[in-house]
Amino acid sequence: MKKINLMLYGLFSLFLVISCTEDFDEINTSQTGFTADEVSAKFFLTSTQVGLYAPGRFEYWRAHLIHTDRFAGHFTFGHNASWWGDNLGYDYNAGYTDAAYGWLAGRFGSIKSFGDLTKPGGEFENQYMYAMSLIMKGLYYQMYTETFGMVPYSEAGVDGILTPKYDTQKDIYKGIIADLDEAMALIGSAETSGVGVDDAGSNDIYCGGDMQQWKRLANTLKLRIGMRALNAPGDDFAASTIAAALAAPLLDNASGSVVMKKDLVISEWSSAAYGDIWHDFGTGGAANWTIGATLMNILKDNNDPRLTAYTIPAKGGTFVFTDDGSDVNFQERLDFIVAALDRANAEYTISTSGADTTIEMGAGQYVGQPSRINGDTYPYVRYDLFSLPSEFVTKKRGQQVDTYPEIILTSAESYFLQAEVAVRGMSGGDAQTLFAAGIKEAMAIWGISGGDADAYITSQAIADISTGTMDEKLEKIAIQRWLASYTDGFEAWAVVRDTGYPSELAAGVSNQTIFALGTLNGLYPQRLRYGSGAQENPNFNAALDAQGPDVQGTTLWFAQ
Question: How far apart are CA 488 and CA 446, in angstroms?
């Protein structure tokens, strides 16, 4: 029988280091080589999937926590126990941005390699796994282009082209849609990627080898991109893309969401979680972050049952603020802290004796920390005044328990997008029914019961789009999409840029006494700057000419 060559064997060993499959031990100890019925591209699949949504700790810290999770308004730094002020990320830092750029730019190679293995004529030719590669490429490029803007696409990975051109976001979206259409056609009615060793099965940590779930994933991604491009300058494909997506199966309450279970056994340097940073950088607040006030207040104001799933209460205590004359803005900064407590409807007492003002706040209260606090306000932002992420999010590695799943694409978003289409009059669906289904699906991921979700839907105005103006309905849909993207900062940030909601975030900040205006002078960040190696491509300047300056404030095509 056919033997696999030695070079391929070496690649096998490399890629399988983090794949954690039962097959690995048997394959890795084989002394006789591999026969054709013992090898499959599925052994290259797991690491490709993990790297896109759960990179190593270095990248998870710099790309997710420093940038997108905080731009999304879900997490904040800048309290008095933190090692970092809340200007981090808003003040451009090449070292941090380079880490995010290096990770995303570097992910293409793994996805392309899997596609090359499985494409027609590839070493492990398999049309269904090749379809997976096209869909993963679409997920990847959507994240990549919405983070930086124009990036190499059409010429990326083409033999003989070492300096690929930068494609417009419009063309990248169109290319993604074409790939998704091809993938769905390849899948057809297939249920699995093959039999025996060709069945991806548990090696597929997105869809468990279910090809129809891959097809629904592709079609829902297609709908997302169509809706994101809708009404952007020169859009000539969104409406037809949306109509085509609505005519095919989407993720729904029967299929469930596509999420990736975190692996807390393999090294955090290969695949990290929030808990790796929470526990390994220091304790007692040194490297810990708080919940953003915008998120907390929306949850609390609307009796959202996700409050206790997303967050834990503030510790509370006695907090003394002393006006020793060194800060001419003492009273304004203290008033700001008090206003934040009032906005959260916190129960506290405040008293003044001489130069000391004392705030006493009991434990067990949910209070969010305002974002983008500057270094001078930093000492006033007491760590124990504010709520933290839930233990489900910050669980320590090695405790052998479940933690939050990485969101790939949810059935909740599928319903929210369909509800928006209906509100815009682009389909005949019932917007409120779709909206309510989305809320239930979003809550299910976090263990919220159907009964609690129903109670929220029937009692809270934020869950009702049966009345109101179109703008009011679209705002509620955007808010629910943003809430459902908790722990998926890349998508939550994109929602704010695309829709302008929550408006409190999109408006940015202006009071430099309180806030860190950053490189953007208080404006809301629209993108990350390219990594420092990007300019080595001779096509780099042409991209800037077409897109705009390489600064965080340049608005990308989809958000214009």
Answer: 13
